[in-house]
Each structure stands twice: as structure tokens, then as C-alpha cells.
From TrEMBL:
Annotated PROSITE patterns: GNAT
Pfam families listed in its UniProt record: Acetyltransf_6
InterPro entries recorded: Acyl_CoA_acyltransferase, BioF2-like_GNAT_dom, GNAT_dom
Entry protein name: Acetyltransferase (GNAT) family protein
Organism from which the protein derives: Paucimonas lemoignei
Signal peptide per UniProt: none
SUPFAM superfamilies: Acyl-CoA N-acyltransferases (Nat)
One GO MF term attached to the UniProt entry: acyltransferase activity, transferring groups other than amino-acyl groups
Residues covered by the N-acetyltransferase domain: 208-371
Keywords attached to this entry: Transferase
Length: 372
């Protein structure tokens, strides 16, 4: 049964049914499906982007009917130049490790497919037209990915998929830290043991894990001090990380680890615990203390906490195939993107030719000018 697609232009104006769906999705799918995540990202990390939330409601009534699916998207406020396509993009950027439609739990495959088809059809038919639609980064192994591809193709758009990044994660399988630590590579185990002894014998070291709002400002200050002393470039959006830390503290998700050496913040790591998953979001260490492997020692402390105290079922290193991640994790999966080109528009057609290739031009034309 098809539903009514409504478009909302702000989180503050969402009806109660949409808020309930966000809450349900956060419990089941984690932070990247939560309203607090999207709200902080929009406020501190997306610049001049304008929000556009597509909601698939269960009835045609104008009231606050039950909502089955939400798709938070963005577009630029300013009008594009004459040669620029008009793009609709997922409410995500380089701070986002996962994105996807917000769906009710327990939906059967057929209902999910119909809902995605309704959303794609609505987006493809809007006026003024969207020339290009982008969804990223998505779990390529989740059924929603292939169904999104099929939905936009069914709506008459040409679709291309692409690799975004690898994602390393640990399946805990009920282990406590001591059991897990035995499975680490010998090189890493030896480093942790040796550097722990060295640190204890030559420095006054202290490790803290901040969880509460009462300590959050001190934690932010320590994190920012470490980050400025690290090898990492300045944040493109300076307010995003502090906003994320405060939001996670309010939600009870925060695990902000800070290692102090002789009273100086030497390493800091932002971990986030939701839905039985500990996500390692951001880490840095002061290069002056690099020889002590202080970052690895802090990782071990946080790992012990989430396994023995939080009792998580999974630890997720989120974004990237950095070599050190495979030492701590057990499995790898991939995040991919979807880009759909509106073949009914000149900009969309030209963008499709540039990205998909001229050899498919005949096929593309047949999709918008079917033979009789």
C-alpha cells in the first residue's frame, strides 16, 4: 500500500510520529540514525546547506499519521550557476560514517521496497527538478542499498554506485577484555606491555574516561589541546566536535578518554556507545609523547571499559582502512554511495554521460525516450 510523501524543512517542525521514528531508529541502528546526530551535524558541520526531510506517511490524511520512513536530505541555499547541476544530497558529509533511510523496525522486504519506490518517485518528479541525487555513505551489504538503487532506476533515473571507504569492526562475542587481549597480535601485545612499564617508571600518568555532562567542558578543553598538538589538520568546522561531545554527554553515549602525562593532556579519544556498539569516532595524541605509544595505551583502557563495563557486542572503528585498525578489530565491511542522474533534465543527462560514460548514451536516451 502506497503512502503519502510529505516534505519537512526543519527538525523543529517535525510531527510527533517523525520524532518517534527517529527515537526507534536510534535504539535499533545507533547514533547515525538519531535526531541528535543530524541536528548537530546540520547546525555545526554543513555550512549553508538547507534541510529537506522526506517522510513517507501511512495514510493520505493531512494530520499526523504514522510515518514509515524518513529520508533527511540537504541542498544548497544559493542557486547553482548556469552550468552547475541542482543537487539533492544525503544529510551527511566527511563527519558521517553511515547514512541511510530512517525506517521502522521489522518492516518486511516487500514493504521496504514499496516505500523506497514511493520516495524515489516523488524525488524524481519534483519541480523544479533535481538533476542529481546523492546518498552516502551507506552499508553496501544492507538490503536497503540494493533496493535504493532499484527504486531510483524504477523512477527513471540512471544510477551509479561507488566505493566510499572500508570499515573495520570487532565482533566481541561476549568476551571480557582479558580474553580479547589474548587475541591481539603479538607485536601489539608486546608494545602495550613494554610501554606501560616505561610510562609507569618514568612519568606520572593518569587515564580518565569522561561520561557525564558535569565533566564535559574539561574534557573538550583537553581534547582540543591534544588535537592542536597532534599531526592532524585543523577541523574544517571548528564547532562540530565540541557539539558532538556535548550532545553525546546529554544522551548518555559519551566515552571521552584522556591520557595525562605529568599533568599534561597527551592523548584523547572520542568513543560513543549506543545500541550495544562502541564507535571509535575521533582520536589524537600530542606528538611530543609519541615514543610512549600513549595513543595505543589509551585505546587499550577504553577497550577494557567498553568490554567489561558497557558490555558492548561490537566495537566499530568507523571510517577508513588505516593499517593499525586491523590490529584491534576482527572484521571488515564497506560503505558505498549511490548517485542518481535525472535523465529528464539536460544537466542530469550531461552529468550521467560524464560519470557513467559515452558508451551508455544510447541506453540513457532509451530510458527517457522509450521506443513505441
Amino acid at each position: 500500500m502506497s503512502g503519502r510523501v510529505a516534505v519537512h524543512d526543519g527538525f523543529d517542525a517535525l510531527p510527533a510520529s517523525c520524532l518517534s521514528l527517529f527515537e526507534e531508529a536510534a535504539r535499533e541502528a545507533g547514533m547515525f540514525s538519531s535526531l541528535p546526530w543530524f541536528a548537530n551535524l546540520l547546525q555545526t558541520g554543513l555550512g549553508n546547506s538547507r534541510l529537506r526531510i522526506y517522510g513517507l506517511h501511512a495514510s493520505d490524511n493531512e494530520g499526523d499519521s504514522a510515518v514509515r520512513m524518513l529520508l533527511p536530505m540537504t541542498h544548497q541555499l544559493e542557486a547553482p550557476g548556469i552550468a552547475a547541476p541542482r543537487e539533492l544530497s544525503s544529510c551527511a558529509n566527511f563527519y558521517s560514517s553511515l547514512f541511510g533511510p530512517i525506517t521502522a523496525c521489522g518492516r518486511d522486504a516487500g514493504a521496504l521496497e514499496r516505500d523506497l519506490a514511493d520516495l524515489a518517485k516523488t524525488i524524481a518528479a519534483e519541480s523544479p527538478a533535481w538533476h542529481v541525487v546523492r546518498l552516502h555513505p551507506m552499508a553496501v551489504d544492507h538490503p536497503v542499498f540494493d533496493r535504493c538503487v532499484a527504486a531510483f532506476r524504477q523512477a527513471g533515473m540512471a544510477v551509479q554506485t561507488y566505493f566510499c571507504f572500508g570499515n573495520w569492526y570487532l565482533q566481541v562475542d561476549g568476551r571480557r577484555y582479558q580474553e580479547y587481549a589474548k587475541s591481539l597480535p603479538s607485536r601489539l601485545k608486546n608494545t602495550l606491555a613494554r610501554k606501560s612499564r616505561q610510562l609507569a617508571s618514568s612519568h606520572d600518568a593518569r587515564f580518565v574516561i569522561i561520561r557525564d555532562e558535569t565533566e564535559v567542558e574539561e574534557g573538550i578543553a583537553a581534547f582540543e589541546q591534544v588535537y592542536r598538538s597532534s599531526w592532524k589538520p585543523a577541523e574544517a568546522h571548528p564547532d562540530f566536535i565540541a557539539g558532538l561531545i556535548r550532545m553525546c554527554a546529554r544522551q548518555g553515549w559519551l566515552r571521552l578518554g584522556v591520557a595525562y602525562i605529568d599533568g599534561v593532556p597527551a592523548a584523547a579519544q572520542l568513543w560513543i556507545v549506543t545500541d550495544g556498539v562502541a564507535s571509535i569516532y575521533k582520536l589524537a595524541y600530542d606528538e611530543r609523547f609519541g615514543a610512549l605509544s600513549i595513543g595505543s595505551l589509551l585505546t587499550a583502557r577504553l577497550m577494557e571499559h567498553v568490554l567489561d563495563v558497557d558490555r558492548v557486542r561490537e566495537v566499530d572503528y568507523l571510517t577508513g582502512d588505516d593499517a593499525y585498525k586491523r590490529d584491534w578489530m576482527s572484521h571488515r565491511r564497506e560503505r558505498w554511495g549511490i548517485v542518481a542522474f535525472n535523465l529528464r533534465t539536460v544537466h542530469g543527462l550531461l552529468a550521467a554521460i560524464r560519470n557513467i560514460g559515452g558508451r551508455h548514451l544510447k541506453t540513457l536516451w532509451r530510458r527517457i525516450r522509450p521506443e513505441k
